[in-house]
TrEMBL record:
Keywords on record: Cell membrane, Membrane, Transmembrane, Transmembrane helix
GO biological process: myelination
GO CC terms, sorted: apical plasma membrane; myelin sheath
Segments passing through the bilayer: 33-52, 64-86, 98-124, 136-157
MARVEL domain: residues covered: 28-161
Protein name per its UniProtKB record: Plasmolipin
Native source species: Aptenodytes patagonicus (King penguin)
Length: 176
């Protein structure tokens, strides 16, 4: 689980504190993956909120953009909370680095399609100027989300492959 902050860390506390809420993983928040996940959540929220505030139901293309942005926003928030609360340590059987890499790669590809769809469907001659402005802004934020998921795919791949570590560290963390 190299490259994922907090993956090899164990918690210690006073006796009887095991029933307490898990500690927040500050190292995750300061890591590239943590920062990018936070950015993805904000950008995804902006995309679907901007589209939802238009008459998107009159244009089939925006249905796809809404699906992609809401689906990946929800799953990203769930992953973010999972890593922030270190819950992935409780489910050690799941290959988290691989799952996160596949998720980010799929999100990148689908956000490419959502960005292109959203940008192509923006029509400057719309009779509702505020719809045009919101859809154009949503296209911009969809592009930023696409880039953020692409960068996360890169960092997730490095974490999955254990790049930047040595054999001794990977032995310790894989069996911790």
């Amino acid at each position: 689980y190299m490259g994922l902050p907090g993956a090899a860390r164990t918690r210690s506390g006073s006796p009887g504190s095991s029933a307490a809420l898990p500690a927040l993983d500050g190292a995750f928040l300061r890591s590239p993956l943590g920062g990018l996940m936070g950015a993805q959540a904000v950008l995804g929220l902006l995309v679907w909120a901007l589209i939802a505030d238009t008459t998107y139901h009159l244009h089939a293309a925006y249905g796809w953009v809404m699906f992609v942005s809401i689906f990946f926003w929800i799953v990203t928030v769930l992953f973010f909370v999972t890593y922030l609360l270190q819950l992935q340590l409780k489910f050690y059987v799941i290959p988290w680095p691989l799952v996160l890499m596949i998720f980010n790669a799929v999100a990148t590809v689908l956000y490419i399609t959502a960005f292109v769809t959203c940008a192509a469907a923006v029509q400057p001659t719309s009779w509702r100027q505020w719809d045009y402005n919101r859809r154009a802004a949503a296209s911009f934020f969809a592009c930023l989300a696409m880039v953020a998921y692409g960068a996360s795919t890169f960092f997730s791949f490095r974490a999955w492959k254990g790049l930047g570590s040595n054999a001794a560290t990977s032995q310790v963390t894989d069996h911790a």
